[in-house]
Write a structure and sequence with these properties.
By secondary structure, this protein is an alpha/beta fold. It has 18 helices and 18 strands. Helix 6 (168-178) crosses helix 8 and helix 17 packs across helix 18 (451-459).
């Protein structure tokens, strides 16, 4: 893919590329200067890295290979958002480096020796830019649309509520549940009517009414209130990630010679939407996997979301409710190594996509399941998004800020960190599952991740203990000798441009970084659904 960074068009220097579109990125991304020179910290000094790696079942000895170029002040928040972002990217980078060493032949009968695993050095600048990738996206110079007018916080009779109405069907269901007719009104007038209606109702009453109508609305809760809620109590009992072997099947063979990327010849079926799941599969595509995203023809998708998270992938439409669609999917499954789903637990079971069913038909498969609220508890089948999990779990309450009238109003994280962080964790779990299979610990594998578990981890200060201390983890501080500098954050070193079927794209570069690893995707996204339903 073209390597013409925005820094070059603004007077900086473009980064060179090797012939196959990958180059060995080092920790000096962006070149020398005040913005590139920062303190380097080891994994033991970085909150959350060890816990994330332990949750993935990784060898603790490999943590000595991890370091980070620290840039304080990025992703500012009351909660340790930068720490979460850094930890998930570092863990994913280490999982990629580990598998790379294994597939390159640096391990014979057991796990690769720490000295053989490429060193990992992530950069806070790359991490922060990637965690806000949807904001940096430009398509022929156009910015993304952002949240829809009816997706926001609202005053209610007894507190606050957040709605999500970015998709037309969710918007229609919200208005129907509130009894607000469009009546040809402009968006501002419609929002005023919704505000008037919500001001007369209790937040939890609206939450249930909108849910019953198939819409999305969640009451703002404190962390303590969420802990008392049945779903919050369930989340507090669950680990950050859950990995289980479904059988004792041998690992699926990987055809072809090992290439430059650790997932070369690995085929991934991507049945995910919005941000978290697509971030996971976008990461697997970066590492060489043949990722085929499959969408139902009747489900809408936002063009900006596809442009942002479609890097490195192909995209096809498939109606799984038809016999022809099921037959086509079965052909894909018989050559797949990984299947990742991002729908509510059980929503795809009727199509034969329950994990156990997939393992029966394709022994040795790795199945990744991602959801908003997890697989247990009364909300397990509810729709959810990052903004709504922030609202329910207590994050919005923790991040509250003075409102226009002087009273505190709920706030949001500086990035959709639950989405991005969970996506990198899920990608890392897939990498580790493939590694474990090739180390003789075989079997079809099921990996589950949920936004609500990542929220629990963040609220607990990235603690290894369920529930945590609710105290933000301290950020590492560079030396106080003035050497790191205090230059404002400039994302341009971690942005790139390329031509694509969607137009000229400006996009955030991937944050994964290990010696010899890829620094960019091998291809830009194509048009949504334009690719054949087939493997390369």
């Amino acid at each position: 893919m073209e390597r013409s960074s925005p820094a070059a068009t603004d007077g900086g220097a473009a980064c060179p590329a090797d012939p196959d579109g990958a180059d060995s990125r080092t920790a000096t991304a962006g070149g020398p200067g005040p913005e590139a020179v920062r303190a380097v910290r080891s994994a033991s000094e970085l909150p959350g890295v060890e816990h994330a790696w332990t949750a993935l079942g990784g060898d603790a000895a490999l943590l000595e290979r991890v370091s980070c170029r620290v840039r304080p002040g990025l992703l500012p928040a009351r909660l340790p958002v930068l720490g979460l972002a850094r930890a998930t990217v570092a863990a994913c980078s280490l999982a990629a480096a580990e598998l790379s060493a294994l597939r390159a032949g640096n391990s014979s009968s057991g796990a690769a020796a720490p000295s053989r695993v490429p060193s990992v050095q992530v950069d806070d600048g790359a991490v922060a830019t990637a965690f806000t990738s949807e904001r940096h996206l430009r398509t022929d110079g156009r910015s993304p649309a952002g949240f829809a007018p009816l997706s926001r916080f609202w005053h209610t009779a007894d507190g606050w509520l957040r709605t999500h109405a970015n998709y037309p069907h969710h918007r229609a269901r919200l208005l129907s549940a509130l009894g607000v007719g469009e009546g040809g009104r402009e968006e501002d007038a419609l929002a005023e009517a919704v505000a008037t209606e919500l001001a007369q109702r209790a937040a939890t009453e609206v939450e249930e009414r909108v849910h019953a109508a198939g819409g999305l609305a969640v009451a703002v809760r404190s962390a303590a209130e969420w802990a008392e809620h049945p779903q919050g109590a369930e989340a507090a009992r669950r680990p950050l990630l859950n990995t289980a072997r479904m059988d004792q099947a041998p690992p699926l063979p990987l055809p072809g010679a090992f290439g430059h990327r650790p997932l070369h010849s690995v085929r991934v079926l991507d049945l995910t939407r919005v941000i978290a799941g697509p971030v996971a599969t976008r990461t697997l595509a970066l590492l060489g996997a043949d990722v085929l995203r499959v969408d139902a023809p009747q489900l809408p998708e936002q063009p900006e979301a596809h442009a942002d998270t479609g890097m490195g992938k192909r995209s096809a439409l498939l109606d799984l409710s038809s016999r022809a669609g099921q037959a086509a999917f079965e052909e894909l499954l018989q050559k797949a190594h990984v299947v990742i789903t991002g729908y509510r637990p059980g929503a795809l079971d009727r199509f034969g996509l329950a994990p156990e069913s997939l393992a029966d038909r394709r022994p040795g498969i790795v199945v990744g399941q991602l959801s908003a609220w997890g697989t247990h508890g009364p909300w397990r089948r509810r729709r959810g998004f990052d903004s709504l999990v922030q609202t329910a779990s207590g994050i919005a309450f923790e991040e509250r800020r003075p409102g226009p009238g002087g009273e505190d109003a709920p706030g949001a994280l500086p990035a959709q960190a639950l989405d991005h962080g969970t996506g990198y964790l899920l990608a890392a779990a897939v990498l580790r599952s493939l590694t474990e299979q090739r180390l003789g610990r075989g079997g079809s594998v099921l990996v589950r991740a949920a936004l609500t578990q990542t929220a629990e981890w963040l609220l607990g200060g990235l603690s290894a203990q369920p529930g945590g201390s609710r105290t933000p983890a301290p950020e590492p501080v560079p030396p106080a000798d003035g050497s790191p500098g205090t230059a404002p954050y400039d994302p341009s070193p971690w942005l790139n441009q390329t031509r694509s079927p969607l137009g000229r794209l400006r996009y955030a570069l991937p944050p994964l970084a290990y010696d010899g690893g890829p620094s960019d995707w091998s291809r830009p996204p194509g048009a949504l659904g334009a690719d054949p339903v087939a493997w390369w």
